[in-house]
TrEMBL record:
Chief location: membrane
PROSITE patterns, sorted: ABC_TM1
Membrane topology reported for the UniProt record: Multi-pass membrane protein
Originating organism: Campylobacter iguaniorum
SUPFAM superfamilies: MetI-like (SSF161098)
Molecular functions per Gene Ontology: L-cystine transmembrane transporter activity
Family from the record: Belongs to the binding-protein-dependent transport system permease family. HisMQ subfamily.
The name this protein goes by in its record: Amino acid ABC transporter, permease protein
GO cellular component: ATP-binding cassette (ABC) transporter complex
Organism lineage string: Bacteria, Pseudomonadati, Campylobacterota, Epsilonproteobacteria, Campylobacterales
InterPro entries with a match to the protein in the record: AA_ABC_transptr_permease_3TM (IPR010065), ArtM/GltK/GlnP/TcyL/YhdX-like (IPR043429), MetI-like (IPR000515), MetI-like_sf (IPR035906)
A matching Pfam family: BPD_transp_1
Keyword Membrane: yes
Length: 220
């Protein structure tokens, strides 16, 4: 029983020190990328520069959505040193996860922005707001409310996907489980414990998601 309980400690430590920070930083960075990409893709101006950036964004989304996250992680951590760019495991993981989240979330945000009735833009213009003020004060809050469930699920999925960082030696939750299993050969028990820790984290995040959605439904 003591061994069973003691096995949780390094996994919880890995979750607190690496899994959760890695997921939070990657999610925030990814959403920042997604916002920029989504805004560029919904821009209807005929400017040549905008058209060019749209092509870049479309290529970025296509390559990220068309390749496995694990391959992207391997390219950044193991591939970039071949051209003289060496990054530590944690930074490599953040870059890979951020780019991945950015591509997928940009489509969520783009769809959410387009789902806001065009009349809302016209309402902003009618009271003297410019495009920026109309977007930030009227459109963005409504779009965020629409996107919130999907973005929340994306973050929960990222918590689980962070286990992939173990392949580049980040000592997060799953890496700690692998180390323990290699020491005591109790693979079923240790990996079941790791699954339980992930499950508890996701249950808590699901609870926060419900509260957040209720709050936004009330005030928006």
């Amino acid at each position: 029983m003591n061994n069973y309980l003691e096995s949780f400690l390094p996994m919880i430590k890995g979750a607190v020190q690496f899994t959760i920070p890695l997921s939070l930083i990657s999610f925030i960075a990814g959403i920042s990328i997604a916002i920029v990409v989504a805004i560029i893709r919904i821009d209807e101006s005929k400017n040549g520069f905008i058209k060019f950036t749209k092509l870049i964004c479309a290529f970025y989304i296509s390559i990220i959505r068309g390749t496995p996250l694990l391959v992207q992680l391997f390219i950044i951590f193991y591939g970039l040193p071949n051209i003289g760019i060496t990054l530590n495991p944690f930074i490599s993981s953040i870059i890979a996860f951020s780019l991945n989240i950015g591509a997928y979330a940009s489509e969520t945000l783009r769809a959410s922005i387009l789902a806001v009735p065009k009349g809302q833009w016209e309402a902003g213009w009618s009271i003297g707001m410019n495009n920026f003020d109309t977007f930030t004060k009227i459109i963005a809050p409504q779009a965020f409310k629409i996107a919130l469930p999907t973005l929340s699920n994306t973050f929960i999925a990222l918590i689980k996907d962070s286990s992939l960082a173990s392949v580049v030696l980040v000592t997060e939750l799953f890496r700690e489980a692998q180390t323990l299993a290699a020491q005591n050969y109790e693979f079923l028990r240790v990996y079941s414990q790791a699954a339980l820790v992930y499950w508890v984290i996701c249950i808590f995040l699901g609870y926060l998601q419900t509260k957040l959605e209720a709050k936004f439904s009330k005030y928006l």
